[in-house]
Amino acid sequence: MIAITRDVSPAIADAELTHLERTPISFARAAEQHEQYRALLASLGCTVISIPADAAYPDCVFIEDTAVVLDDIAVITRPGAESRRGEVDAIAPVVAKYRPLARIEAPGTIDGGDVLVLDDRIFVGRSSRTNDEGIDQLRTLTRREVIPVELHGALHLKTAITRVASDTLLINREWLDLAPFAGWKFIDVDETEPFAANAVLVGDIVIFPTAFAKTRAKLAHLDVRTVDADELAKAEGGVTCCSLLLR
Ligand code: CIR
Fold it and tell me: Are 85 and 78 in contact (CB under 8 A)?
């Protein structure tokens, strides 16, 4: 597996915030946590690629939002936040080494954090970042079924739901409509940890933030590796946001 990552921007303290109050963010601490995350991916057998940061883009570490990588194609997104649109320019040439590229065009917008690929179906959150035009464009670019999902209060779909096993989704059911996910097993986040539904699955291993101990306890039957991610979380990013994973 290849993990494409991007360094933390020295301007991370100016990251976009939607649902969080702005608090000071330590660049050094964020960068250190990001290194731990990369080291964990490498220890799990991923080839980790690092793209340099750009100080013009405070959110550039959250590379997940810039592309949707499928088996046969990669879709370079048009991020919903205007401040993030230019991030894709440094990502496209790297992703192009591994997949033919397509692009979301204006007025469509998609943030990769809204796209959850589950086998042959692609679930896409209708959010403040991802619009119906973007979802329709994605539909024309893939043979897989593209299913819109209603969100209520989450920044991205994957803030509210991610896969933690072949048949199991970790969810914050307050934040999304679960009807499209009928047939899946669910694990609910602990109610005191609303941001705990964002996990990365690498093979059978779940990468999960250290901070969410109560939800972690609900994953005891899984092979979970924890990383400190609380500094990046102040910029409203989770563990999925920090990589593009390619088979
Ligand atoms: C933003 O608002 O765009 C960033 N501060 C956080 C992006 C997190 N990305 C993700 O969940 N995929």
Answer: yes
Q: Phi and psi of 164, rounded to 5°?
A: -120, -5
- 158 beta partners: none
β-bridge partners, 1: none
Q: Which of 34, 60, 156, 242 is catalytic?
A: 156
| Ligand 1 lining (C-beta closer than 6 Å) | 15-16, 18, 59, 62, 64-65, 81, 84, 113, 156, 158-159, 235-238, 241
Ligand 1 atom 5: the closest Cα is on which residue? 16
Backbone angles phi and psi of 73, in degrees to 5: -160, 155
For residue range 58-102, list pLDDT tens digits in order. 999 999 999 999 999 999 999 999 999 999 999 999 999 999 999
Does the model's pTM come out above 0.90? Answer: yes
46 is catalytic: no
